[in-house]
From TrEMBL:
Keywords: Aminoacyl-tRNA synthetase, ATP-binding, Cytoplasm, Ligase, Nucleotide-binding, Protein biosynthesis. Catalyzes the attachment of glutamate to tRNA(Glu) in a two-step reaction: glutamate is first activated by ATP to form Glu-AMP and then transferred to the acceptor end of tRNA(Glu). Residues 4-307 form the Glutamyl/glutaminyl-tRNA synthetase class Ib catalytic domain. It comes from the Bacteria. A motif ('KMSKS' region) lies at residues 240-244. A motif ('HIGH' region) lies at residues 11-21. This is Glutamate--tRNA ligase. The gene is gltX_2. GO terms for molecular function: ligase activity. It comes from Maritalea porphyrae. Monomer. Its EC number is 6.1.1.17. ATP binds at K243. It is found in: Cytoplasm.
Length: 472
């Protein structure tokens, strides 16, 4: 085995990049980086019927968005089928595997008998030691590995500890199907060996697979990689994360307005810990990462915590980058109104971001909050904003309109002085003037403060909107 640490992320391209798989990639990436090694990306596309180019593109795009770099180009498992078959035939030639002619009917009978006896189905090895002469002429067969029939198989796991399986519960599994194609259990071992993978980190639902695959490693005389099986991510209710819990794919989180650093940080904390640290950079994550920090138990996703963490990263994000993220999201969501507004008022939007980003939990909210800069006309008022300009408030707005029209010093201090003088002359609290004025020109319940809004919009736009509102 090489001295260089090599991990791999090996998704099946049958759909989107599941957030649970993305966390597996994150852990493999951090492990490799922390130990001075590298991570490889292997696309396990041997299921040609279910594998799609769109899914492959989604996986690669998701990895790029998360900032999880890998060494070299993606490796496609389907291109290694001849090598997988070569290993199966080698095991067959060496007497470490055998041809099995059990019919579908016989396998069904075994399955039904096991079910009736309340035990898992285990192939009864009926063709394991039979002479070749017993084989029915021209009948289809599969190739099964000769697994140990007694004793134990131990998976030395860096997360779960030593996990022991009784050999009698692990049957002679198929490594070559009747059509000559290799199975997953074989292909993964061959690829990991040929790629020089030293550390395998994946979900704990693969523990039984690892026990079986150890048989192939031992039969071939290959070194067994270091193994670590991490618990799956559960929903808030403790059940395995599924569609009913909401977003499952990495692209879902991107479209919902989460930053990649939020996803890296939050999902790193689901199943791994460094003391009580909650918010940390990717560099810190790599520096601190170790098997010792991985949890044995499943973690529950908390969407409120995820949002709060995203709000933190938005507040600390560079304004130019935030603007680019807003435009990119509007493009991805095909929101022409927002896209035209963001691009047509780029300078104003960027100037508003220091105030806007303190309130936003997602990029979607940030885009929405910027709409007051480029609203549809006539203004469409939110309910609370509409209520803020009714009754006495409307009369106050009509009275303050000429004050603003006559104001030449359109600066923070100039606007402040004029509005405060007006409020005092009318024996009003300042808020009775500022709040309806802000609502009148934004049509929003939430927006930056009154002075910020008026400065961002400028004198002409402010007066245009104010006249529109007071003309009712």
């Amino acid at each position: 085995m090489t001295d260089k640490v090599i991990t791999r992320f090996a998704p099946s391209p049958t759909g989107f990049l599941h957030i649970g798989n993305a966390r597996t990639a994150l852990f493999n990436w951090a492990l490799a980086k922390s130990m001075g090694g590298e991570m490889l990306l292997r696309i396990e596309d041997t299921d040609r019927e279910r594998s799609t180019d769109e899914a492959i593109a989604a996986i690669i795009s998701g990895m790029d968005w998360l900032g999880l770099d890998y060494a070299g180009d993606p490796i496609y498992q389907s291109k290694n089928i001849d090598r997988h078959t070569e290993v199966a035939l080698q095991l067959l030639a060496e007497g470490k595997a055998y041809k099995c002619y059990a019919t579908p009917e016989e396998l069904t009978e075994m399955r039904e008998k096991a079910k009736a006896e309340g035990r898992p189905m285990v192939y009864d090895r009926r063709w394991r030691d039979r002479p070749e002469g017993d084989a029915p002429v021209g009948a289809p067969y599969v190739v099964r590995v000769k697994a140990p029939t007694e004793g134990q198989i131990v998976v030395h796991d860096k997360v779960q500890g030593d996990v022991t399986f009784k050999a009698e519960n692990l049957d002679d599994f198929v490594i070559l199907r009747s059509d000559g194609t290799p199975t997953y259990l074989l292909a993964v071992v061959v690829d990991d060996h040929d790629m020089g993978v030293t550390h395998i980190m994946r979900g704990d639902d693969h523990l039984v697979n690892s026990a079986r695959q150890i048989t192939i490693y031992n039969s071939m005389g290959w070194d067994i990689p270091v193994m670590a099986h991490t618990p799956l991510i559960h929903g808030p209710d403790g059940a395995k994360l599924s569609k009913r819990h909401g977003a499952l794919g990495v692209e879902d989180y991107r479209r919902m307005g989460y930053l990649p650093e939020t996803i890296r940080n939050y999902f790193a904390r689901l199943g791994w810990a460094h003391g009580d640290d909650e918010i940390f950079s990717s560099d810190q994550f790599v520096e601190w990462f170790s098997f010792a920090g991985l949890n044995k138990g499943a973690s529950r996703i908390d969407f409120a915590k995820l949002e709060n963490m995203n709000a933190h990263y938005i507040k600390t994000c560079d304004d130019s980058r935030l603007y680019d993220l807003m435009v990119a999201l509007a493009e991805e969501l095909n929101d022409e109104f927002a896209l035209n507004g963001l691009k047509g008022h780029a300078d104003t939007v960027k100037a508003a971001l220091p105030a806007l980003k303190t309130r936003a939990k997602t990029i979607v909210e940030l885009v929405k909050s910027a709409e007051f800069i480029y609203p549809a006309r006539p203004l469409e008022f939110e309910e609370k904003a509409k209520a803020a300009i009714e009754g006495d408030a409307l009369e106050i707005l009509r009275s303050v309109e000429p004050v603003l029209e006559g104001l030449n010093d359109w600066s923070h201090d100039g606007i402040d002085a004029a509005l405060r003088a007006f409020a005092e002359s009318q024996d009003l609290k300042f808020g009775k003037v500022a709040q309806p004025l802000r609502a009148a020109v934004t049509a929003k319940n939430a927006s930056p403060g009154c002075f910020d809004v008026l400065l961002l919009l400028g004198r002409d736009e402010t007066l245009s909107r104010l006249r529109e509102t007071t003309a009712v």
